[in-house]
Design brief:
A 3-stranded antiparallel beta sheet has the order 4-3-7. It has a two-stranded antiparallel sheet with strand order 1-2. A two-stranded antiparallel sheet has the order 5-6. The protein has 5 helices and 7 strands; from the N terminus they run E-E-H-E-E-E-E-H-E-H-H-H. By secondary structure, it is α+β, with helices and mostly antiparallel strands. It has a single domain, classed as Pnp Oxidase, Chain A (Roll).
């Protein structure tokens, strides 16, 4: 089933085998740096994880000192952006994945256009653990 530009993927017992391809799917995890700048981090091995009737959960691993991990601990928020399997996007993901770069350094290499949230101010405030 297709919803807008998104496709619904059924979670099956063999999800990993039926949904994997080479190269592995990559998501760009977007978090907010302390400066307020958006930070994109490429991740592979990010899979749906359904427990106790909550089908909208994802699992991914990150280094504890990555920009993504630091930002997630501070804000508790991120977006997962699935990108097409296209060589130019994958090449840019490699550039966005160097450990030790600041958000400013990393995002200077990004070819991706970030769009503002479609959530209302009330929704964003309700999700923001700092409020």
């Amino acid at each position: 089933m297709k919803r807008g530009s998104f496709r619904t993927v059924r979670i099956l017992d063999n999800f990993y085998q039926t949904s994997s391809f080479f190269p592995m799917p990559v998501v760009l995890v977007c978090t907010v740096a302390e400066s307020g700048q958006m930070n994109l981090g490429p991740y592979s091995l990010c899979f749906p994880y359904a427990v106790a009737g909550h089908p909208y959960q994802m699992v991914f691993n990150t280094r504890d000192n990555s920009n993504t991990a630091i930002n997630l601990r501070r804000t508790g928020l991120c977006t997962l952006n699935f990108i097409p399997d296209d060589r130019k996007y994958m090449r840019n993901c490699v550039m966005l994945g160097y450990p030790g770069e600041t958000t400013e350094e990393k995002m200077g290499n990004s070819i991706f256009t970030l769009q503002p949230s479609v959530r209302s101010e009330e929704e964003r405030t309700a999700l923001d653990p700092q409020h």
